[in-house]
Amino acid sequence: MSYAAFDSTASVEDEINEKILSISEDRLQGFIADPFKEIARLTGLPLSLVLERIRAMFSAGTIRRIRLTLLANDLAPGALVAWKVPENILHEAFDFLFQKDPFSGHVVIRSTDPSAAGARYRLWSTLKVPQGFSLETHCEILKSFIGAEGYKIMPAKGIFTLGVGHIRRKTILPGTKSDTVATMHPISLKKLNDKQWKVLGALKKELTIDEIDEGLWDKRARAIGMESKEFFSVAKELEKLGVLGRFSTFLEHVKPLYDGKKVTKFNALFHWAVPKGMEIAAGSQIGRFEILTHCYWREAGSEFKDVNIMAVAHGKDKDLLESHKKAIDHHLELTGIPVSYTNIFWGGRSEIKPSEIFPEAYKEWLQKMGLDLNTI
């Protein structure tokens, strides 16, 4: 569709849209009975206008998906995986993970100084494997399919920051941080009953254009043959279990939008190696910095000089992102947290999709790929 097909009501630079997105990207935590009404309340805008603008941005591709996110690490074993793939098949491997593996989520080709630790690990992906199956086995399967020479599995031990708010963050100055330290969410696999899985399936589905309206969850409840009262009750159970993330309008922040503009240009994966026993202290300080969309405790091992804290930041200016990183490094020094090694992996080609977490989906995938479930 041509750029002329949409006007400024679909632009991220429109003042009203900025106001909506500053809330709708990452400010709606947990289960909210009517999320669009809540966006209207928090922005002070009429509900009709909020719906109109979100529909316009969704239709134009400015918003690439709308969904209630899950803290999927608590529902399925998950990890960040760095892949060592020969350069001549790097993009072919990327395509496989994005197009043919429903359990790989964010797939990125990254680069760093060739002399840096782990520089040959160019392909990075997030991975979730449904309960009852193995991350290691799945990586072995993928290794064979994509021709990887090796891989490093880095499960999250704790989450300090998780919330992608690109519009809200674009004016943040280096060094801007919260007044209090970030609280770590420890990873703990939760067991759900059949009814909870059923409601979870209805909650996590991406919205269609027709669902951008009032009464979203009432309609989803009816679709699975459940009364709204019971559906809402189970949703609150899931919230108390800590497995629900945020209701979010995800911007297309990698590719050019309908008007040729981009929300962000650079994606930086920051690495720090801190002494054993200081991971929570370091992550709690790093997680305070508002530029970060993600901050995790992950053990990267000797290939990456024992990096154990990782964080992600996005922006339009590479030098500015490096200034944000320097401000975090300076803060760690002031707080007495020693760093033995630090580095930045810069993102290039990137695709994002939600990882599948349902066991039945894994069985179906194995069958589709011609693999025997009994040998997995």
Automatic annotation (TrEMBL):
Gene3D superfamilies per UniProt: 3.30.70.3460
Domain Siroheme decarboxylase AsnC-like ligand binding: 79-160, 266-335
InterPro entries linked: AsnC_trans_reg2
Superkingdom of this protein's organism: Bacteria
Pfam family, one: AsnC_trans_reg2
Protein name: Lrp/AsnC family transcriptional regulator
Species of provenance: Candidatus Methylacidiphilum infernorum
